[in-house]
Amino acid sequence: MEADALVRGWLASLRNERRLSVHTLRAYGATLDRFLAHLNVAHGRPADLALLESLTAADYRGFLAARRTEGLANISAARELSALRSFAAHVRERHGATLTGLDGIASPKVKKSLPRPIAPADARALAETTGEFHDEPWIQARDTAVLLLLYGSGLRIGEALALTGAILPLRETLTILGKGRKERTIVLLPPVRAAIERYARLCPYPASKDAPLFRGAKGGALAGGVLRATLRKARVALGLPESATPHALRHSFASHLLARGADLRTIQELLGHASLGSTQIYTSIDSARLLDVYKSAHPRG
Predict the structure, then answer these.
(1) For residues 86 and 28, what is the distance between their CA atoms, to the nearest angstrom?
(2) Domains held by the chain: number
(3) Residue 273 forms part of a structural domain
(4) Are 31 and 80 in contact (CB under 8 A)?
(5) 301, part of any domain
(6) pLDDT digit string (tens) for 61-71?
(7) What is the pTM of this model?
(8) Cβ-Cβ contacts under 8 Å for 269 (sequence gap 6 or more)
(9) Is residue 266 part of a domain?
(10) Active site residue ranges
(11) Which of 48, 112, 142, 298 is in the most buried spot, having the most CB atoms within 10 Å?
(12) DSSP code of 48?
């Protein structure tokens, strides 16, 4: 069986069964495209199931070494290996073939960096200032509403942009379909509800149940790249660091809740994390902030 067909089947299973995001599928597909192209050059023929089964650890190391010459960092190398291991597991499960060469490959060590939250006043200013870079009042209201939703409710940007007019009229809570099509309930604070309602009143496009709630200038779905580009201008205008991104607003939501006494389980549910371990990183953020305050304030710091 040709390797290209195996890859197509694997990606289909990730999309239909595991429901991975479009971004993850694109990244995984690109990794396998590069890997198969490398094998074609190294072995002088297109890869098939028999060739994949014959690969040794040296073959995989050769691929990673080639990628390193292209400037691949540890975190990216770890992602490439994750894709290859996922593919190998699929081949074993669906076709009974074992790709043993991967067994001798250790993932590179990746230093876990802490998310960098934005101060509450800066988060609000970022949301409001981003809107000011447009001439159309409804687009100003749109950008402010989306960013307040990220900070006020902890949504991922993709989750916010996937909302439709079906959520109107707004209530105090909202059901979100997150990663893995897992549902969770979020809270809509009064300022967030007010911002979304103002946008809905000003938007020239009807808020139908099946249409995107947040629209682009020509009426289509708002693209995340458009919002990020405008936010970059606001970030510069406010003198905020490059870490002040849409996703940083979600981090800020979680870290500010923790600082105010919210428990990790509640934050886990609000963020839609599959495991508590993903949420526990915010305890490190809070500890790091306290340490910074101590060092700057203590006479022997």
Answers:
(1) 9
(2) 2
(3) no
(4) yes
(5) no
(6) 888 888 888 77
(7) 0.56
(8) 184, 185
(9) no
(10) 156, 179, 247, 250, 273, 282
(11) 142
(12) B
